[in-house]
Amino acid sequence: MLSKITRKIWILAVTLIVAFFVVGQLVEAKESDYAAEQYSKIKEIEIQAGERQKIKIGFKNVGRYNWRSTGKNFVSVYTFGPKYRQSVFEDELWLGADQPAKLKDPLVGPTQLGYFEFYLQAPDKQGVYAEKFALAAENKLWIPGGQFELVITVKDEIADSVPQEASAGETVVTATVEETAPTALKIIDGQEPTVRVGLFTTEEPIIFTSPYTYEIKNTQGEFFCVLNLNEEASVSYVEASRIYHIKCPTTDFTSASPVRVEPTEIISFMELKNYEKYLRWLPKVNNNKFRGVIEINFSKDNGYLWVINEIPFESYIKGIAESSDNKNQEFLKALAVAVRTYGLNNLSNPVKHNGKGFDVDADIDQVYRGYAFEEQMPFWSNAIDATRGIVVTYKNEVATTPYFACSSGRTRTWREAWGGMDKPWIKSVKTPYDRGYSRLGHGVGMSLHDALTRAKKGALYDEILKYYYSGVEIKSVY
User: Fold this and answer.
1) Coil, strand or helix: which one is 261?
2) At what angle do helices 448-456 and 461-468 cross, to 10 degrees?
3) pLDDT tens sequence across 46-82
4) What would the 3-class secondary structure string for 55-118 be?
5) CATH 2.60.40.10 spans which residues of the chain?
6) Which end of the chain, N or C, is surrounded by fewer C-beta atoms within 10 Å?
C-alpha cells in the first residue's frame, strides 16, 4: 500500500501529466480555430521613390472562428520578421508604424474570402526591399498561414514627380511632366472634358438606387434593364468565372463585360446604398451619391474590382473636398481655379493609373466625394460656376498648381520640396499670414491659410493666384 506522501506525489504527477495534455490540446485547438490561406498574390511591386501606392492582399479563412474588423480580437496586418518593427513603407493612414490595416470586411466566416487594403509610402532610398507581414487576431495570436512577403523595388525618383500626401486641404500628384514647361492639355474644340474617377475597390455587390431613372448596360452596349425611380439593383463580380451578375428589379442577368449604370436625364444622381464614406469635418454626411455614370469594372492589370464614376469635369470639381464652405468667395474662386488646373494636369497625364480604367483616384489624387458633398457646399459650387473653364497657364500651357494647408512664413520651390528641376512659375514667396503657424503640407504653391487672409483683406481671386504662381496668366480653356 502506498503511503500518504507517496499517494500525494503520485496524484500530483498524474494531475500534471493530464494538465499538460489538456493544455496542449487547448492550445492546439486555439491555433486551429484561426487559420488563413492566401488566395491573391501580388507580383513584384515597382514604385518611384517618394510615391504612394495602394495594395490589396486576399486571404481565405480556413479556420473555425469568424474574422472581424472590430471587437477585442479584430483581425489586422502587422509587420513581421522581426515582429512589430517600424516599416520604412509606413503610410500616414496606417493604424501604426507596425500595423498597416484592419480586415476590410466587417465579417469573414469560415471558408469565406476577406482582404486587407493599405498604402505603401516609398522611402527616398532606391533599392529592392523585402517587407514581411503577418495576420493577427488582436490580443490572441498570430494567425497560422497568414504570413506574406512583398518584394518592392524602389526606383530613382522621376525628376518632376510629386510625392503623395493625404493631409486635409492639400493635394499633390505623381505624374511625369516637362522640365521647363507644363504638359499641354488637349481640349477638343474648346469642350469641357469628361473624367473617369476611381472611387473605391470592393469585393461586395454594389447596390444602386435613385430618385431618377437609369439604364443598366455593359460596355459593349448590351442593354439589361431600366431602373425606375427609387427601385434597387445590384452588380457583383465573380473573379473565378470572370462574370458580372446584375440583379434588376424583376430579372437577373450576367455579363462578360463591365457594367454601366447610366442616367437618362442630365440632372440626376445615383446613391450607392451599401457604401459609406465620411469626412472628419462633415461626420454626419455619408458621401455615397454621385452624378453621371457609375461603372463596375474589374481591372485585370491589378486584380481589383473598381467602382468608377464617369462625369463632366466641372461636376468632378464640385465634388472635390479640399475646403469647408464657410469661406470668402474670392478665396473659393482662387481655390476652384487651382483645383481645376491641377485636375486638368492629372487628366492630361494618365500614366499614373494606366490599366485601371480611370483617369484619377478619388483618394490619392485630389480628394473627391461626389454629389453628397456638393449638396453641402453651395458657395463652393457657386465659385466653380463663376470660374467655369478658367485655369492657370504658363506660356499658353496649362500649369501645374499644387496647393497646401499652411506654411511657416514662406512657400518652397519645386526643387526644394521634391528635387528635380525647378518650375519657373513656382517660386518661394513670403506668406506673412502663416507666420507663427506650423507648416501643414508640402509647402509648394498656394498656401490656403495665407490665401484666405488675403481674400478677407480684399484681394481678388486672380490676384491671389498670380501671387503664388509667378509669371502666369489666368485663361478660359473651355
Assistant:
1) strand
2) 140
3) 888 888 888 888 888 888 888 988 888 899 999 997 8
4) EEEEEEECCCCCEECCCCCCEEEEECCCCCCCCCCCCCCCCECCECEECCCCEECCCCEEEEEE
5) 36-155
6) N
